[in-house]
Predict the structure.
Amino acid sequence: MIPASFDYESPKTLNEALRLLASHEDAKLLAGGHSLLPAMKLRLANPALLIDLGRIGGLDYIRDAGDSISIGALTTHGTVASSQLLLSSSPLLAQAAANIGDIQVRNRGTIGGSLAQAHPSADYPAAVLALDAQILASSQSGERVIPAREFFTGMLTTALRPDEIITEIRVPKTAGAGTVYKKFAHPASGYAVVGVAAVVRGSTAKIEEVAVGITGVGEIAYRAEAVESALRGKPASAIAEAAKHAADKVEALGDNYASAEYRRHLVQVYTRRAVQEALSAKRK
Ligand SMILES: Cc1cc2nc3c(=O)[nH]c(=O)nc-3n(C[C@H](O)[C@H](O)[C@H](O)COP(=O)(O)OP(=O)(O)OC[C@H]3O[C@@H](n4cnc5c(N)ncnc54)[C@H](O)[C@@H]3O)c2cc1C
């Protein structure tokens, strides 16, 4: 449980961090350390250089940006979970953050680190997909915006280039919508065996808009498009049948705790519950 030796830098500015990252092939960024450090101790990750983002000021914020809310990449899960701005204008991300691990994990882990890690059972990916969030990445050549739907590309793999740092996540305000995150947590790790994020607009007579993001089932989080298209314009009575499509076209993962068949069943149940609860949730 002792990591291989490594060099350590703690830049004070984003530019300095970007320069270090670009000039060292075998460098890794350190944020909350709650995914990277366990991996290093198990020697699953052996970076030659750790670039600690913790001393860079100005990457830890939650700000009103008009139609959206901007969240700095170094904002901890605990801060996201308790943000009054998020809870009053776009609660889904806060609802997902409140479900992450335990209080120690929520106090150290960051939203940027979690998204960059792209763990197949992490909670945020379901929420950022359902919200059609945007992820801002900076490099020495500038800044670019990556839509959440293009961000997760494989197990533990994202659209980030090796020289890029996530600086901000932007989520739209969800006025008039009900939002819910439902999770069946692994009893030991707390990670999602299945996690479903739902954003629903409309009434029991007619569902106007619905977005469903799912984590824990396959190698990457995904939007349940078959569920969404089976529900648009339909009454609430269509939810149970639509939820049966929650794992369509997805190769479910199986492990000692939950078989692929069990995950496929669980995700249908959790999708039904999440959409029903989002439809009846209190609207802002
Ligand atoms: C006991 C335990 C239980 C947990 N339970 C859950 C859970 O229930 N749900 C859940 O979702 N997660 C869970 N986690 C993971 C936790 O949320 C981590 O904090 C998170 O996945 C990584 O965030 P971090 O800030 O700790 O990143 P780090 O561990 O520091 O970094 C993770 C990876 O992201 C990269 N990185 C970090 N910041 C950036 C950035 N700004 N730009 C680009 N790359 C970056 C790093 O180089 C590294 O590759 C758990 C972890 C532990 C230890």
Remarks:
- The pocket of flavin-adenine dinucleotide is lined by residues 28-36, 38, 53, 73, 100-101, 105, 109-110, 112-114, 116-117, 119, 122-123, 160, 165-166, 189-191 (CB under 6 Å).
- Residues 254 and 262 are 8 Å apart (CA to CA).
- DSSP finds twelve helices and 14 strands in the chain.
